[in-house]
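Pair request: fold both.
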Amino acid sequence: MNIAICGCGIGGISAAIFAQRLGFNVALFDQFEVPKPVGSGLVIQPVGLRVLEQLGAAKAALAKGAKGFRMLGHEAKSGRLVLDVSYGEKGGENFGLGIHRASLFGALMEVAEAEGIKVTGKHRVVSTDVNDQGRFLTFENGTSVGPFDLVIDTMGVGSPVSPLISKSLHYGAIWATVDWPDDCVLQYDCLQQRYRRASNMIGVLPIGTMPGENRRKAALFWSVPRTKIEQWQNSPIEEWRAEATNLWPELAPFTAQITDHSQMTPAVYSHGSLRKPFGDRILHIGDAAHRASPQLGQGANMALLDAAALMKCLKAFPLDQALSKYTKARRRHTNAYQAMSWAFTPMYQSNNRALPILRDYVLGPLSRIPPAPKVLSSLVKGTMINPMRGLPPM
């Protein structure tokens, strides 16, 4: 079977490796001249780590990332503990792996190159067509290629071939990668956040080291309404540093490293899912099929799970059945996390005044009463619902 994969991101590389091992002919296309990651830090949850183990990229990812055993969130003014999620025993086998996208990308590309997978760069797919022979791709430069038995769209939020119409979220964020200060009082095995109502949030995520470096890094993120990103870019950076440090004084050694707006990357988010993520010889996975707020830290994990589930189905079923089997296998897990993200996000990123009160004085205390801690832990790990219903276990 001839498979074309559009997009050399986390999902695209993973799908290519799995497909190559199944004996398929793989063509991997990317818009960049040289494939590269976009973004700052992320968290690979335990379900995602299982996929990395299958791919053979877990060892390299673990060497570069930072193990996190807890997620903590405090109300900035009162110091009230709002969020406390533990993966389990500190130093145990359950953790979230904070890692820079470049390091994760490098770990996957190392495996892909060892498998002999070639990436065709400077080929941005703009449309696809299908006939009796198969599906064809048309690129931005006007050239076309095909036919393929299957096209896998992993081009993310900006995919020009995905029919997904998503709802823009009011709040986005600005991200920066900074050094972890040597004299920092914060724990390096914990994601920590501070909130003022739901309209202000700042957080710091340990992400290990960058490719070719040994200095420990962190991802710094600041919540901001998408309509005010341009205003932030046009205001003095000193104003933002003062506001961020006032919200969380201990973060001064981090914010002091930001001396120019260009050091931070704006990100906007949307929410939505394709009810039917496949068509005639085409399948959309990852953000091309389902998008949500990053509040639950599941984005990269969803892409990894999609790639693994798809290849399990292609291995077990003929193509005319595999895509519908894949959709059925992933639907419950994807829909559940979409719903929970939609429910939880306004409590941390919105202009609502009532929800933060509910969060701080009701849900926060209840979350520490059994069995809530175990439920929250499984929610973050990605294991609350079988991520591949009806398929062989990871």
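--- second member of the pair ---
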Amino acid sequence: MKKKLDRRKAIKNMILGAGAIPLLSNSAYGFRDTYDAKNTIAAKNYGNSDIKKPITAITLGAGSRGNVYGNYGAQFSNELDIVGVAEPIPIRNERYAMKHNIPDENRFVTWEHVFQKPKFADAVIITTPDDLHYAPCMKALEMGYDVLLEKPIAPTEQECRNILALAKKTNRIVAVCHVLRYAPYFIKLKEMIDSGTVGELISIQHLEPIQHIHMSHSYVRGNWHNSKKTTPIILAKSCHDLDILRWMIGKKCKSISAFGSVKWFKESNAPVGSTNRCTDGCAVESICPYSALKIYHRDRDYTYVFDFPEDESTHSDFILEQLKTTNYGRCVYKMENDQPDHYVASMEFENDITVNFSMEAFTSYHGRRTRIMGSHGDIVGDMNQFIHTDFLSNKVTKWDVSVENVDNYSGHGGGDWALVSDWIKAVKAQDSSLLTSTIDASIESHIMGFMAEKSRETKQTVSINL
């Protein structure tokens, strides 16, 4: 019998057998251990102290995103006053109304009810489900409201174009929540590209790691598991990325070629002994990384989707009940999901700039990764830091990102509240130029997403006509 080979020796032999190729270090990924210079990117403080009288707004949809944007008003009442809410889930409606002191006459069950009343605010914040963005946005514009519109703009290209046309016709402000444009990290990257720091821009590689549990939560079990009832994942999740690429490059995308599928989260991969629900005595629940009992009950992760009762002592039983009655307790291999769990797109922009984008479910981490390659330098970043190398001098500069209160208040690298801050100023001054994510600017990346889906489905390179 052969002697069992020591793992350390086996790895060494593999390296020697490959021509003594060294193990990858940080530098192989673009990061280094020492730097010629270090800088910090700090977000500006939230709040516009010069604004004395707030704009008034009605929130349509008091879920997670409705609370993110509404919380800005709770913190900066001199800028934003939430005076109305539409929300069909009673406990959400009640809690939102209490937080913002909304009178009963301005509490509504659905968005349609809001517009049965004469205009009673400056603006509307639309954070309804994806398939309920179009109709309320069109109605709001017809009635003279300015709009803060959660992405995606609408489920179809024609609906996106209709909103753009009506916004122009009514001369109203529509800010799309492409919040990465307001994150200090991406603002600095764009500044460095525009200033010629890397020379002439040649190519970009951009990765969005969804993270495996996040994928199972949102796009297998969650609200966006069915693309036909909501929007394709390239828009539901990655329109942020298409938008930030278009914004940083500053040129139009000419063509796109995309590939992707549901490879893992399907019934053919269901383990032997699995049940329809993780609570049904599944034989493999304890060894499944996607176990709903592990994620929601034991680890208490992603529980923001549950509307917990006030009594904390009942929360454990409440979660178990949710897992027995909602999609969040179902087996990830036995859902009606159709969203690709891996997605790649290659794009050609004007001036022969190329981009490779990859959206991946099966990662252990979050946070976009970006490589920018120019004629005189390159940049490698992960939203926490980026490294710039100058080809001529070989000088390496590290930039660290410092954003206060991201976890408690403003996600997306500080972009959430920075967007709200600029939107308030734009509405106050009736000047859309104070925004970088107007409907005019944001629609291009949506069309890129629609064309990516067309390419993925037809397996052809698709030209983009804007």
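Observation on the second member. Residues 1-25 have pLDDT under 50 and may be disordered.
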